[in-house]
Design a protein that fits this description.
This protein is an alpha/beta fold. The chain has three domains: about 5-60 and about 155-350, Zn peptidases (Aminopeptidase, 3-Layer(aba) Sandwich), CATH 3.40.630.10; about 60-155, 3-Layer(bba) Sandwich (Glucose Oxidase, domain 1); about 350-440, Orthogonal Bundle (Arc Repressor Mutant, subunit A). The protein contains 13 helices and 19 strands. The strands form five sheets. The chain has an eight-stranded mixed beta sheet, with helices on both faces. α1 (about 5-15) packs across α10 (about 330-350).
Length: about 450
């Protein structure tokens, strides 16, 4: 399997960054065509006007130009300079305004004077501009300004991408990200990037135990539309991840599923533990991204999020300061690796039953225990080779003790404190020596 480099991850981010995206339109299509070069995806569409539960898929928004200029033609706010300058889904306009009349259509962040805020008006017909407070402060209060927005709202489609990777088990997991945010690197082009390379990683896996359903969707309306059109399949999803904010400089964090102790939560927490990382654990709340859609009562899909600088928690959130300097390839790679580690724990998780339940088997005659006794766990004998043997014996004895057919490897790792990979290795050796057998999975405790 091909693992991405930090440079590859940041390279895809750089290609996606300047594309003007919204919840519909050509920017989404262009972005998904780029992702098709990495991931095994099929691009699909739902038409405008389709009713999806309590929502209606909106008209498609197309924008080519937007600016505020002085009457002598000098552009002082220009959409071509930064795609965040115009409020998403702004209606077309070409008119002159006094500063007083224009002011109500301007959005700034007084507490972050260099930042252009991100604002949208998807479901209310309006128009507006976003600018840095420093720009706003320089506007002549006595002047008149020409305001131009060349945009169109027309019947079209909501575009998304899907990838279904089948496995051999009956379990299917969801990996979802949102593809609508423009000109912001961490939120959420980072999620689009990491999801694309995760798809490539799993698509190249020769033996997938579980099935994986990948989706790249416009946030909220995309997830709602997808749930509506795939209702029965989504009710059978075991659990999943929503990938968002994967590339900031902050500490790795994990937003738990709505259950908090689901298989997804346990796999992620083991992955962090085995890597020696103490994540910032965040309890579930019905806000943020599409986890609130997937977890609603009709579906109750437990989905979590591994992040670096999660939405709401960093000053650059939803501003122009969330740029290509804020996100690094190394941080994207750190998030990618954590997702891979958690997925591999899900893939490797098994339930075993001992074939010798009456007391412990004699490991020595099977070459699984040193022939000279007394040296294990002796503080004065803590050389590297001996410590390796001790770790292996610890994993073997925990497996023989715990393998009663009711504990999966995740449960044994949680109780024993043993690294998950050590237990996997020990289990295979015990199977090879006729001491354990793999049985059908039980529902996790």
């Amino acid at each position: 399997m091909t693992l991405p480099t930090a440079q590859e991850l940041h390279g895809l981010l750089t290609r996606l960054f300047p594309i003007t995206r919204s919840i519909t339109g050509d920017g989404v299509r262009e972005s998904l065509e780029i992702i098709k070069g990495i991931a095994n995806v099929e691009v699909k569409e739902y038409p405008s006007g389709t009713e999806v539960y309590d929502w209606t898929i909106p008209k498609e928004w197309i924008i080519t130009e937007a600016y505020i200029a002085t009457l002598d033609g000098k552009r002082i706010v220009d959409f071509q300079q930064n795609g965040l300058h115009v409020v998403g889904y702004s209606l077309p306009i070409d008119d002159e305004f006094s500063f007083k009349d224009l002011q109500s259509h301007l959005h700034t962040l007084p507490n972050s004077p260099d930042a252009i805020p991100y604002r949208t008006s998807y479901y209310k017909e309006s128009w507006g501009f976003c600018l840095a407070q420093k720009q706003f402060d320089k506007l002549d209060r006595n002047a008149r300004y020409r305001v131009v927005i060349k945009s169109t709202l027309k019947d079209g489609h909501l575009t998304f991408a899907e990838s279904l990777l089948p496995g051999t088990s009956q379990k299917e997991f969801l990996i979802s990200t949102y593809c609508c945010h423009p000109w912001m690197a961490n939120d959420n082009q980072s999620g689009m990037v990491v999801t694309s390379f995760l798809n490539r990683y799993l698509a190249q896996k020769k033996k997938r135990r579980h099935s994986y359903r990948f989706v790249w969707l416009p946030e909220t309306i995309g997830a709602i539309s997808y749930l509506f059109h795939n209702e029965q399949a989504m009710k059978n999803i075991e659990g999943g991840f929503v990938l968002s904010c994967c590339g900031g400089p902050g500490r790795l964090s994990y937003k738990e599923t709505f259950l908090g102790d689901h298989l997804m939560d346990r796999a992620v927490k083991l992955a962090f533990k085995d890597k020696g990382i103490e994540p910032w654990l965040r309890p579930f709340a019905p806000d943020g991204s599409d986890e609130r859609q997937y977890s609603m009562p009709a579906f109750r899909i437990p989905v979590g999020t591994i992040a670096k600088d999660k939405y709401y928690d960093y000053d650059e959130y939803h501003t122009s300061l969330d740029d290509l300097d804020f996100v690094t390839g190394e941080n994207l790679l750190a998030s990618f690796e954590m997702y891979v580690d958690a997925i591999e724990i899900l893939e490797q998780n098994r339930v075993y039953k001992t074939l010798m339940p009456y007391c412990e088997p004699q490991l020595g005659k099977r070459g699984l225990y040193p022939q000279t006794g007394g040296a294990l766990n002796q503080s004065a004998n803590a050389d590297k080779a001996n410590m390796t043997v001790e770790a292996e014996i610890d994993a073997i004895t925990w497996m023989m003790f715990s393998a009663d057919g009711s504990n999966d490897l995740i449960a044994i790792a949680e109780r024993s404190g043993q690294p998950f990979a050590n237990l996997c290795s020990a289990a295979q050796k015990l199977v090879d020596n006729g001491l354990l057998e793999e049985i059908e999975e039980v529902e996790p405790v």
